[in-house]
């Protein structure tokens, strides 16, 4: 019994120490409101914001790089949502109507040129090199114009659809929806494994780098308040912006996580979260099993 008590104290202390080392920074677009940060690669960040001014698209996207903002709008769209970036390529989703029922499309943006995905309703959520993942109701992997559609067999017969949200090398993460709870999946080749945070009602991975996964969890049936998470294959770390009522972790690169949070006034803000370097993380092995050595995900 004494041994168990000591272990619990060590875990608690380590978690407190990790939280103290996290560095949170708010980053909002200088125009519009409700900034969301979705993806990051080599310090370059993509996301979106709401623009309520007359005559303008109501959701616009941006690339934030070296303190400069480049705004992205698919021609003819009033909704452009940049989801992820790898090198010079940005992927996302757009639509031309102002209701969610309007047909959605996916896009690739590179060097000022928008390429529209050929598959109807196919939205692009993640990219790693030439591999793009997303959803058209089913998950897909797109490589050089060739689509591979799939759904997790672990959820067969229980869910009405799924989406692939992140990719790193040959590993894809995503989640299925249509009934409660919503569960994540990890796909390596043709093998699937379920991704569920213990105690969570819904687990929704958003991005992966190496064996590090970030995403969103809801702890109850109301789905009114989310928490971000970092999962290293063994340990789950909840991510909550101090003072926020809801937090979402959307992208990871190196030791940096990006996402969004809802403040006490109900506004949505983007955040950049710096997590401990590998040398510091290794000190936590006794309490958390250690976070995996952080590696760059994209090339």
Describe the structure.
It is built from 3 helices and 24 strands. Residues 1-20 and 279-299 have low confidence and may be disordered. The chain is mainly beta. The chain is 9% helix and 51% strand. The chain has helices at 2-21, 278-281, 285-288, and strands spanning 23-27, 33-41, 44-50, 59-65, 68-72, 79-86, 89-95, 104-110, 113-116, 123-128, 131-135, 139-143, 146-150, 161-168, 171-177, 184-188, 191-195, 202-209, 212-218, 226-231, 236-239, 246-253, 256-262, 268-274. The protein has a 4-stranded antiparallel β-sheet with strand order 1-24-23-22, with no helix packed on it. A 4-stranded antiparallel β-sheet has the order 2-3-4-5, with no helix packed on it. It has a domain at 1-22 and 210-299. The protein is globular, with a radius of gyration of 19 Å. A hairpin with a 2-residue loop joins strand 18 (202-209) and strand 19. The longest helix is centred in the first third of the chain and has 20 residues, at 2-21.
């Amino acid at each position: 019994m004494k041994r168990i008590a000591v272990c619990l104290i060590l875990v608690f202390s380590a978690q407190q120490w990790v939280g103290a080392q996290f560095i949170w920074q708010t980053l909002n677009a200088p125009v519009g409101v409700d900034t969301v940060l979705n993806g990051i690669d080599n310090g370059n960040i993509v996301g979106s914001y709401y623009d309520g001014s007359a005559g303008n698209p109501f959701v616009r996207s941006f690339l934030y790089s070296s303190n400069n903002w480049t705004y992205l709008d698919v021609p003819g769209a009033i909704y452009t949502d940049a989801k992820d970036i790898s090198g010079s390529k940005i992927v996302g989703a757009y639509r031309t109507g102002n209701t969610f029922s309007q047909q959605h499309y996916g896009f690739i943006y590179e060097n000022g040129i928008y390429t529209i995905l050929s598959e109807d309703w196919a939205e692009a959520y993640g990219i790693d090199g030439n591999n793009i993942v997303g959803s058209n109701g089913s998950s897909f992997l797109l490589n050089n114009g060739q689509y591979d559609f799939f759904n997790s067999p672990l959820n067969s017969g229980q869910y009405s659809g799924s989406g692939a949200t992140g990719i790193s090398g040959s590993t894809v993460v995503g989640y299925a929806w249509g009934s409660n709870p919503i569960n994540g999946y990890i796909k390596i080749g043709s093998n699937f494994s379920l991704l569920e945070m213990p105690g969570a009602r819904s687990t929704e991975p958003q991005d992966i780098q190496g064996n590090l996964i970030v995403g969103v969890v809801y702890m109850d049936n109301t789905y009114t308040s989310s928490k971000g998470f970092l999962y290293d294959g063994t340990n789950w770390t909840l991510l909550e912006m101090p003072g926020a009522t809801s937090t979402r972790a959307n992208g990871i690169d190196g030791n940096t996580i990006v996402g969004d949070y809802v403040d006490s006034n109900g506004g949505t803000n983007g955040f950049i979260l710096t997590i401990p370097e590998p040398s510091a993380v290794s000190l936590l092995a006794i309490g958390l099993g250690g976070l995996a050595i952080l590696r760059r995900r994209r090339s």
